[in-house]
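Final report, Chapter 2: Outcomes

The project's central promise was a pipeline that accepts a single protein chain and returns its three-dimensional structure in a standardized token representation, suitable for archiving and comparison. That pipeline is now operational. To close this chapter, we reproduce one record exactly as it appears in the project archive, with the input sequence first and the structure output second.
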Amino acid sequence: MQSIRESHDELNALRNETRLALTALEVAIDTTFSLFAALFIFFMQAGFALLEAGSVRSQSVADILMKNVIDVGVGSLTWFLIGYMLSAGGGSPFIGWPTLSIKYQNVTSPFDAIDAAHGDKPAKYLLSYMYAVTAATIVSGAIAERTQQRAYILSSIAVTGLVYPCVVHWLWSHNGWLSYSNPHAVQHAFDFAGGGVVHLTGGVVALVAARVVGPRKERFDTQTHRLLKLRGHSSTLVVLGCFLLWVGWMGFNMSAISQISAPGAAMLAGKTAVRTTLAGGAGSLSAVTAMRCTCTIGPMQTSVWSLEAACNGLLAGLVSITASAPVVSDWSALVIGAIGGIIYLGASSLVASVLRVDDVVDAFAVHGACGLWSLIAAGSFADGEDSISGTTVRGALHGGGGTLLVAELLAACCIVAWSVLLATVTFGLLQHRGWMRISDDFEMVGIDIGELGRTAYQGGHFSAALPISTGDPIPTVARRISQVEASTGSPAAVVEAVRVDNLVGITLNELTTGVQLQLDEGQELVEGLAVSEVASAPGPHPQGQDQAL
């Protein structure tokens, strides 16, 4: 009998050890998965930086890269000190606050409360930080080329410290008033990986910021108010950034699976990755096809392929599937992505042509409009077949009635209203203080010189553009060059002038002394207009006489 009891005790001890070992193994697997997902999401920062750098003109590259670096640095500190606590599961249904454990009941400093808020899952905290800086960095591209660095620092603090954390708490905390996991929520909105929480929030803030700061000087014709095309300086950087974002999106969407060690979770991760890829590809193809069918150039009205539409359509498809990746079918993912590509084109045209907002990288069209569509798609196409949480997620098209769709629309409206309110206050105050926009002189010579004192491409050239309208007299370049020299404190020379749409691009070389206008009299610059006047320009001229446009 004694031996049986001892054997039973040994068996129980072995069972307990095995249970502890399996628990430790599950924690290790889940932690490793979260860390790798966070690293993949971090690649998105490199993607944003490259895409935005390629989308701006060469005199603005260093500035936009600086803003992307600021996002990571300022965002890490802001999220650590306040953002994560406001998104936590404690507090009220509207705003979070950490529920202190017994260990931290008698806190003696703010740092003790911070430790309590961050808990014992640092990998999950790191993942949440990556989501936060992704939301913040969406804003940078929309306001590129004319926004002061200090304004962007303060806006990044506002987004990661207040705007975004509250939205996280509403939809993702266990007691948020819109949370799918809260049985007592007002409505149960489903947002798997942040189509609304991250992308809609960032896109709306970007739109408000671009509206407040105003358009770039050469974006709209000063006389006719016609929309002018300002092309980025490097398609190569744009495409490389787009591919890095696609890679990061795999980690972004799959990271929302909280426990990869749970039964069925690994299969769900694989399906999420497949649907993410399908939606991205469908978005790219639908956008580029629509552009080819509607966009023509030249007197022969030749249809063209748009690289910009292909890249932004891809990102639009990725945003569109973010809220619903694990709960829709593969075919639904294709439809969602394709519709997202068309929505991007429509929103881009609406923002530029109707609202007259200069969104340099179409941040709102890609993230804001398609983030809204992402929530609507979840409320429509969700079929619940891959849910591993014990609950089903069914949209209006799969027998769920309109309950989920109503919840998604309510969440979208609240996110938009909250983001517009706080963004308007933030950027309005910055504008009132004169901290928002760079000076006209700095914008003319390039924000890199004005804000950073150097260009990204040392030893090369930077370009400034002079707006010219059909029917207007050709402006005097010499006057503009004098303004450039006054702004920079160093001589500049016109060494090349090229006609692009309705802009005359003037390439300036800081190292050349004086101003030399190298255009032959009679050279055509704008359709119907030619060089017809000779004006005085400062500096020596090789032909011994003054030349001007």
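Archive annotation: Residues 460-482, 484-549 have pLDDT under 50 and may be disordered.
This record, like all others produced under the grant, will remain available to the consortium after the project formally closes.
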